[in-house]
# Entry
Amino acid sequence: MRVRRLHLTDFRSWREVQLEAHSGANLLLGPNGSGKSNLLEALHVCALGFSPRSRSERDLVRWGADRFVTRLQASRGETPLELAASCDLAGRKETRVDGTPGRLFSRLVGHLSVVGLYPEDLQYVRGGPELRRSYLDALSCQLDPNLVEPLREYARVVKQRNACLKEGDQRDGQMLEVLDQQMIEKAIPLLEARMDLVERLVEPVARLHGSLSGETESVDLFYRGSYGSEDLPRRGQALRDRLEARGRALRNAESSAQSTLFGPHRDELTILLAGRPARETASQGQTRTLAIALRLASAELLALHPERPPVLLLDDVFAELDGPRRERLAKLLPRGGQSFLCSPHRADLPFEVDRTFLLEAGAIRETR
# Structure
């Protein structure tokens, strides 16, 4: 799979722009503020249905405009693919997949695999557990697009259950029991997918971190559920029994909190560096290396799917690294696939690219 063309209208800083991409490495070269990251963000939105930088699609509309439109044309061999997304200031969304219209941005997932390396990725290590949950879910859905709908359904049931709990003594007990069972039914496939994914990530994350850092510190990943002190059963009746038991144990606490206190929406991915929580102890350099290792491990897993090798989006990553780590990262990047790289300086990249685009004065031009 490769991106052939990206067209934007009123997206972030871009009024109107079109980029004709090379099947190899594409360098977006320009000073800070020239719109490089915005192009990567648009690619991310078209492929994954959300922005890596904003929770609200309305934030992506250019100042002074009332709607953004992104359109991406790609191909798998001779088979064309077109993905489009738009949203106006009122939050009204529209998508198109090969011309078929829809409203949900999540329907864009599963057609084009993308892995981005962004400055904000440091928060996957240092930030709150919701960021690590989103990392797992986004990768899980790329590996298996059939998980998109269960994620949406789980969020819907939790919202309904919270509303029921907020009714206090006036709540419908039978309705709460129904929602309890619905929540458990929706939670099980998500938990199974997350735990399986964490198990698959441990080896590549540890290996890539060691290769990138040049150090021998151990790295480990653990899925920590909101289900008591013992490890969560992996699947089957034992998993269901644990969820039901946790629900009973937390009934009074949930009534007081008027909120659902267990489930995938409250779980944690714990990252350990040298046996200690990386969130609390990792240095800036270690945090950056771990974040890159998480992303490169994602690319490795996605590359196992022969029909959807991932497109890499690298947002000024090399400028943040010292010389040795820069060289190591260059050697670790997958070869033979398509990539888009942002940089204010050509010298930051320790390898040659196939096509360079110069961004200046609100326009793009190809340069040699």
Observations:
- The domain at 1-113+309-368 is CATH 3.40.50.300 (Rossmann fold).
- The longest strand covers residues 2-11.
- The chain has a mean pLDDT of 93.
- DSSP finds ten helices and 15 strands in the chain.
